[in-house]
What we know:
Blueprint: E1 4-10, H1 15-19, E2 44-47, H2 51-60, E3 65-66, H3 83-89, H4 91-99, H5 111-124, E4 129-135, H6 137-148, E5 165-170, E6 174-177
Amino acid sequence: MKAIRLTLVCHALTQAQKTGCMPQADDSILALAQPPLAIGPAVQVLTAPERRACETAAWLSAQARVEPALADCDLGHWQGLSLKQLQVEQAQSLCEWLGDPHSALHGGESFAQLCQRVAAWLAAFDTPGEWLAVTHPMVIRAVLVQLLGCPLGAHQRIDVLPLSRLELSFAGQWRLRLGA
């Protein structure tokens, strides 16, 4: 069995992140002065379908392939709303959503559903080699929770900054790779 090395990269900073708004599929990244990281020619690149992920992936490779399973958590009718607005207009719903990973009061996908989607993708991912996947903070949190077997609520304690990376390997089971 040949090993799989998978690096998840969070998309670059967006205006929505900068201003504390919930993401939308067409959010664009803010200008990058240089590519976020160098990758080797043998690395295969996947990207979530949202614009911000595709734009980040384009900095890394002209050959990035869209992978629907890497899509951001669907936030339903909360997409594009600011956290301040939600705190004022839907404080109880926001509090419940933040405290209950099974909640989808926004009419979209719950964190628990996102975890199931990501777990199914990881279980089916079996192509050996070096991979890089550009995705979103919630997806990276879901991967960590699944990989480490944490309670779903632990995702609220994980900060995923723009362009941060999570390295994984697979040789019979998925493992977190820490490095210098």
